[in-house]
Design a protein that fits this description.
heterodimer, A: 202 residues, mainly alpha, Rna Polymerase Sigma Factor, Chain: A, Arc Repressor Mutant, subunit A, 10 helices, 0% strand, elongated, B: 79 residues, 5 helices
């Protein structure tokens, strides 16, 4: 870090915004899609690019560009989630808060000859199926689910990010996981994944 | 001892080491005596691994074209 010298010239003077931003597009899109789903990912990335463009003079080190873009994207996602959370507070209690996919599979027993029916069920889902299932989950539950269980953030970090109590994040996560479990079963039924077990996740 | 529902409700947090010491003890006491919940704990760990190991999704070519076009438009505007 430079402390005794004047601030370095803004990156914009040396490298154009378009050149720097274009390099970030693949991973920015991936992160946005993971967090908010296919339908909203492109919008969120555009919003991020617009904010980044307006603040590009603040970026002093081109090597910091990924972290800088990531923070802007996360702020865009957070702001959208806050708007969604207004609806969340008005939502009635989940009528089946203790839904268990494990028990559902045991009860329905789609492959009676298998001695590993639960793992066979999970192995029926290829990568694209998992993303399709996540796309079925409302973003207000999906965002914390992805941040904690896919991106590896702690619940405390997510609570700070959204300015809510940790208990609120735990409640979102619980609901999100139950939505995910129910969506896995319904997706498997609708897409004939229960016909016969498939191989490991690809 | 806590019930199966109470134990299952804590499983994800337990597996991710995000429960306090009291809850950890409660879950472990339950798992020591309940075979079905042990199966559910193994399944929950596999479900968590499925989420963790799912990579992508990648940037589709048509979306890349849209976003590149958007960047070009921005680049032509006065800053």
């Amino acid at each position: 870090m430079m402390t005794d010298q004047a601030d370095p010239a803004p990156v914009a003077q040396e490298t154009g915004f378009t050149t720097v931003a274009r390099k970030q597009l693949p991973w920015l899109y991936t992160l946005a899609h993971r967090l908010v789903g296919r339908e909203r990912a492109e919008d969120v990335v555009q919003e991020c690019l617009l904010k980044a463009y307006r603040g590009f003079d603040d970026l002093r080190d081109v090597e910091a560009a990924p972290a800088w873009f990531r923070q802007i994207l996360m702020n865009c996602v957070r702001d959208r989630h806050r708007r969604e959370s207004v609806r969340l507070r008005e939502e009635p209690a989940d009528p089946r808060p203790d839904y268990s996919l494990y028990r559902k599979i045991a009860e329905e027993d789609p492959w009676p000859y298998s001695d590993s029916v639960h793992l066979d069920f999970l192995h029926s889902f290829v990568r694209a199926d998992v993303w399709n299932v996540l796309d079925l989950i409302d973003p207000k539950y999906r965002v914390p689910l992805v941040l904690v269980h896919m991106e590896g953030h702690s619940t405390r970090h997510v609570a700070r990010m959204f300015g809510v109590a940790r208990g609120t994040v735990l409640s979102w996560l619980h609901r999100g996981r139950k939505h995910f479990e129910r969506a896995l079963w319904e997706y498997a039924q609708e897409h004939d994944l229960l016909d016969e077990p498939r191989g490991a996740v690809r | 001892m806590i019930s199966c529902n109470e134990a299952v409700r804590r499983l994800w947090a337990y597996l991710e080491d995000q429960v306090d010491a009291d809850d950890r003890t409660r879950v472990e006491e339950h798992l020591a005596l309940c075979r079905r919940c042990c199966g559910e704990a193994e399944f929950t760990a596999a479900l968590r691994d499925l989420l963790r190991s799912t990579t992508g999704p990648e940037l589709p070519p048509d979306v890349e074209r849209h976003l590149t076009g958007f960047l070009d438009t921005l680049g032509k505007e006065p800053a």
